[in-house]
Specification:
Layout: E1 3-8, H1 16-32, E2 37-39, H2 61-73, H3 84-93, E3 96-104, E4 113-120, E5 126-131, E6 154-156, E7 159-163, H4 172-179, E8 185-189, H5 195-208, E9 211-215, E10 219-220, H6 231-234, E11 241-243, E12 245-250, E13 256-262, E14 266-271, H7 275-281
Parallel strand pairs: 1-2, 2-3, 7-8, 8-9
Antiparallel strand pairs: 1-14, 3-4, 4-5, 6-7, 9-12, 10-11, 12-13
Helix pairs in contact: 1-3
Length: 312
């Protein structure tokens, strides 16, 4: 039974190098407690751009541009081996890491940020990278659209893992694409929280017959650095909980195992019995004996979409 740790600590907001150092330290701490799977929330590197919800598109556009420039400068470029410190930490400690981060495509325009989620196996290999298919509402001011190339469930040292980011978990076809790949551990890095989100996590555990891990960044206004542009306008209440975290773990076919960890910082630790996955699907296997392929059929395009192809 793999032991997991959900990270409910904030990054060093919009500072990639210091946040990366903090991530490596948190990984070492969790590994020291015997954890084999370590999960970070959505956009943890270098911090979820909550300013998109706090500045209006008209009056705040110039301010958004300024904040976007800082976000872009602190996003991860995989073409420059930007995940290497985490891959080395995974290999050093023999742990699997699932981490939400903001990615700039250095092999392309180097100007669009993607909301991505990496699965790093215990040998340091990048097992999967998924870019959020559909940024929600104001998020479209800072993030581009992902494609289906990351809709994979992958074998890791702790089991078969798949990820959907935040409100992708409300997309029935995206969920089904993962269910059909024998998912054992469904990880849902998010910025959402509260009872409605927890109900969604429980629904997925029941629908997919899999373990479900939901996690958002536990963040207070006091965690935001003083040098952030427009800080006082964006976060005027120093005592505000910008996000309460609410890390939670549900077992296959529903039922809470750990959490929700509300307005706290630290690690949420649980053990996952993977044998419960197939056992739960005896009753209801959504992509197996409940599938009815004679009536319903899903086609998933997992081709990586590139805006330009160069030939010599």
């Amino acid at each position: 039974m793999p032991k997991i740790a959900v990270i409910q600590e904030p990054p060093v907001y919009l500072n990639l190098s210091q946040s990366m150092d903090r991530a490596v330290d948190l990984i070492a701490n969790a590994a020291g407690k015997g954890c084999e799977l370590i999960v970070f929330p959505e956009a943890w590197l270098p911090g979820y751009p909550s300013f998109v919800w706090r500045l209006t598109p008209g009056s705040g556009m110039g301010k958004t541009d300024e904040l976007y420039a800082r976000l872009l400068a602190n996003s991860v470029d995989r073409s420059k081996d930007g995940l290497r410190p985490l891959q080395e930490a995974a290999k050093e400690h023999g742990v699997v890491i699932v981490l939400g981060y903001q990615e700039v495509d250095g092999s392309g325009s180097s100007s669009t940020i993607f909301n991505s989620c990496a699965i790093i196996d215990a040998d340091g290999r990048l097992a999967n990278n998924h870019r959020k298919l559909m940024p929600t509402n104001a998020e479209r001011m800072v993030w581009g659209f992902g494609d289906g190339s990351g809709l994979n469930v992958v074998d890791t040292a702790v089991g078969r893992i798949g990820t959907l980011i935040c409100w992708e978990n409300y997309m029935p076809l995206a969920r089904y694409a993962l269910y059909a790949q024998n998912i054992e551990i469904h990880v849902a890095p998010t910025w959402d929280s509260g009872a409605m989100w927890q109900a969604t996590m429980q629904h997925i555990a029941r629908e997919g017959g899999c373990w479900v891990i939901g996690c958002a960044t536990s963040l207070q206004a006091s965690d935001i650095p003083d040098d952030l542009p427009h800080r006082d306008e964006l976060f005027p209440n120093k005592d505000e909980w910008v996000n309460p975290g609410d890390a939670v773990v549900y077992k296959p076919f529903g039922g809470i195992v750990a959490g929700p960890m509300h307005q706290e910082k630290g690690l949420l630790i649980a053990e996952l019995d993977l044998a419960a996955v197939q056992a739960s699907r005896r009753k209801f296997d959504v992509s197996g004996h409940y599938a009815r392929p004679d009536v319903f059929k899903l086609h998933v395009n997992r081709t990586a979409m590139r805006p330009v192809d160069f030939t010599n």
